[in-house]
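Hi everyone, sorry if this is the wrong subforum. Our group has a chain we'd like a structural model of before ordering constructs, and none of us has done structure prediction before. Sequence below.
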Amino acid sequence: MKTLFGKTLASLLGLSLALCLVFALLSSTLIGQIHDEINDRALSETAGLLTAYLPDLSDSGALQRWALEAGGASSYRITIVYPDGKVAADSKADPAAMENHGDRPEIIQAFSGAQAKATRKSSTLGMEQRYIALPVKDKEGTIIAAFRLSLDTPAMESRLSELQFLLVTVIALAAALASLVAIYLSRGITRPLGLLAAAAESVPRSGFELKNKRQFSHSSREIRVLGQALDSMAGELSARAESAEAREREVEAILEGISEAVLALDSDLNLRMANNAARQLFDYSPTYGGKDSGTMVSAASKKSKPCLLEVSRSPELEEVARRALKTAAAAEADITLYRQGSQRSFQVLAAAYGRQNNLDKPEGVVLVLNDLTVLRRLETIRRDFVANVSHELRTPVQLVKGFAETLSASALEDPDKAKRFAEIIGRNAARMERLIDDLLSLAKLEQQEEKGSLETRPENLRELIQEALASVEYAAAAKNLKLELDCPGTIIAEVNGGLIIQAVFNLLDNAVKYSPKTGVVSVSARKTDSLIRIEVRDNGPGIPAAELPRLFERFYRVDKSRSREQGGTGLGLAIVRHIATAHGGTVGVESWEGEGSLFWIQIKV
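Answer:
Right subforum, don't worry. Here is the predicted structure as tokens:
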């Protein structure tokens, strides 16, 4: 332990000597400042002493001789200036050739009665000077001249630099020697510590591994013990890390494979984890931390984690999570989410998990959202289908039953009544037959859509449309309607001919039924790129815009009473939509009240 302490002390000593070097440099600067102050004081005292021996100021020749004698042999410069700024004497230059000095700052201040200092470049000598100026007074105290004493700044700096250089050189040599000694003494500890640091850095990649064990074995006992402890700890950490990573991969794979949306929240309902189904549902893309796949959301800082309401925009979902968190028990609820303009139904299961610091408050809550949208839609369709079929069959069944009972009771004795009742029974039986046929057609189409077993072959589209037109010619002639066809005979399509005929017939049948007498019903077909579009146009009463979105639903009628009078089942347009879907196409309608309607089928070829 003493050896380790001694080496550490040597390292600290080297650091201290380095700091001493810095201190020496700072001291050199301070010495320069002190040197300047000493020079200023020396100049001031010298100037004061010389003013006491000044000759008669009125004799400029005597003044010049005195200045040359007093300052000529030294590095000082003596200048005497009259109140008008004229130089009376100067020890370094000819006064007659010198310019007026009345504008010099130190001269101005001296004539004001105060001692003045200044440092600037002399216009006479061409070098930087340090000046001290004193006022010269007569016996009555009147200022009669200014006495200025100056010294070359380069001369002052040369003296100072010699002292600074000597000081810095001595301390630098001492610091360098101390640093070499400190480095030599500290190598015994820094090298083993470097080996330990390199080995510690390699733990995440290849485990704790010493690359120069021989040099490590020659280090102090403390370093060897530290290395062995790190080696043991690294092995344990590596095993735990591998186990944790394996569990994390397993959990991630399970979550990604679950079709239900799963969200893990902390106690403040901030998002901690979201699987792929949840991210797709809420259109959420984490932009920080976590895995590349985005399953695990960063938990680095609380501010970086979005809250549940921010991600889901559903107060209902947040309420379920808070209830589970508050009761520390499972909670269940059915909620509705509105995503991308559609309504979706979910069953939410919420369960709190963990305990925070051994308290009753859970660490967070897990939400599982089971999508019931398709199931609820199917239930709604089933209920509507049963209700609509029951409603459609109720009236004809009652009529058949009522008139059959009447016939069996007494109407057979009256041939006219019996015939009329038999016709009513026949019409309602035919109505039920058409309804059953349409239901069977829908069921068959849906079965073909599910199995993808639609049989197709190349067909001439014009011939198919002409066959559908032939089926409505009698009904159109009865209303004096004109049928028009606009379809090139060169369009060949891979379709199921029978279904295309049925779809066009249903559209034509509706157009004939609802068109006024002497009207026009036209059919057109065009092929553009990979699409075929078939249009059926009439000039009937038109359809209100509010009714258009539901027009292709089963049993939906714009005018229910009139549709039944025309013999419709309410399934014709639904059959058209299923036929188009079975061919990978779509249907649509455009209508203008009072002007007519345009129905179209668009299929891919």
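For your construct planning: Residues 22 and 172 are 9 Å apart (CA to CA). The longest strand covers residues 342-353.
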